[in-house]
Write a structure and sequence with these properties.
Helices cover about 65% and strands about 10% of the residues. The protein is an alpha+beta fold. The protein folds into 2 domains: about 200 residues, Multidrug efflux transporter AcrB transmembrane domain (Multidrug efflux transporter AcrB transmembrane fold), CATH 1.20.1640.10; about 80 residues, 2-Layer Sandwich (Alpha-Beta Plaits), CATH 3.30.70. Strands 3-4-2-5 form a 4-stranded antiparallel beta sheet. It has a two-stranded parallel sheet with strand order 1-6.
Length: about 300
């Protein structure tokens, strides 16, 4: 199935300078957002602490819950709505957890029962992660993403050439930085599902880049009368229909998850939407221009 007519010739390579400016602006916004926020909003998986999700029978003000919990002297307590307002669900996060506080969720529920009445609420979910475990999970999560990127570089360099691998890795770094910037802007929680989403984005972005790179390599051998810039442009146009179909159907599923999946996978779906969108863009406007830059920088090393 093709939604783009054969023979279309959109000048993607001619717009690479505008795309570079756009990407630099997006990266700058992401860096500023991360700086202002003081980094990512680490969830309980990475920061450690106790997290409790409570469902009240009636609507309760967040300030009332916070004031009631302050009487327990638990330190820093964060209370926020969980899901839609009409569900009356609240997420309570207590950052500092010790082994002596293993029954903290029961203590919190009991105290709030006394404050708002017996049977006025129930605990939907309770988790506890020690600070050392959270730090170790954070380190392993970052190593997983870094290992995936290095593995992609090695594979693409072996499968194609070094210049293709460099272009793909620059595009991957571009995608990850902007995705993290969106998480910082929205103050979304960064946890283990977010790492899983980032790894999915890495794989998807590289797959899209490999398809275009493979077509470029084929056309460099077949098309002799055109410049390399023209060959790259032809290759992108030839794979454009496939790119739109793949990205469109994937984004449709991710948007459905974002809208209907509930708060549990809200951030996971958000990362996929941003990552897949920016990954498709970077495969065309970031990875392929690196090939042209490489030709200008190392002209003798480029062979058809």
């Amino acid at each position: 199935m093709e939604i783009i007519k054969p023979g279309i010739n959109i000048n993607f390579t001619g717009r690479r300078k505008q795309a570079l400016v756009f990407s630099l602006i997006m990266i700058l916004i992401s860096v500023i957002a991360l700086s202002i926020r003081g980094g990512l909003n680490y969830g309980i998986d990475f920061a450690g602490g106790t997290e409790v999700v409570l469902k009240f029978n009636d609507t309760v003000e967040i300030a009332e819950i916070r004031d009631s919990l302050n009487q327990l002297n638990l330190g820093d307590v964060e209370v926020q709505r969980f899901g839609a307002k009409e569900t009356n669900q609240y997420l309570i996060r207590i950052e500092h957890t010790t082994t002596e506080l293993e029954g903290l969720s029961a203590e919190v529920e009991s105290h709030l029962q006394e404050r708002f009445g017996e049977g006025s609420l129930e605990t939907l979910r309770s988790e506890m992660v020690g600070p050392k475990v959270g730090k170790d999970l954070r380190r392993k999560g970052m190593l997983a993403v870094l290992s995936a990127v290095i593995g992609m570089l090695i594979y693409i360099t072996w499968r194609f050439e070094l210049r293709f691998g460099v272009g793909a890795i620059i595009a991957l770094i571009h995608d990850v930085v902007i995705t993290l910037g969106v998480l910082a802007l929205t103050n979304s929680e960064f946890n283990l599902p977010t790492i899983a989403a980032l790894l999915t984005v890495v794989g998807y972005s590289v797959n899209d880049t490999i398809v275009i790179s493979d077509r470029i390599r084929e056309n460099l051998r077949k098309i002799r009368k055109k410049t390399q810039e023209e060959v790259v442009n032809v290759s992108i146009n030839e794979t454009l229909s496939r790119t739109i179909l793949t990205s469109g159907t994937t984004l449709l599923v991710c948007i459905t998850l974002f809208l209907l999946g509930g708060p549990v996978i809200h951030v996971f779906a958000l990362v996929l939407i941003v990552g897949f969108s920016i990954g498709t863009y970077s495969s065309i406007f970031i990875a392929t221009p690196v090939l042209l830059f490489w030709k200008e920088r190392f002209p003798k090393k480029i062979r058809r």
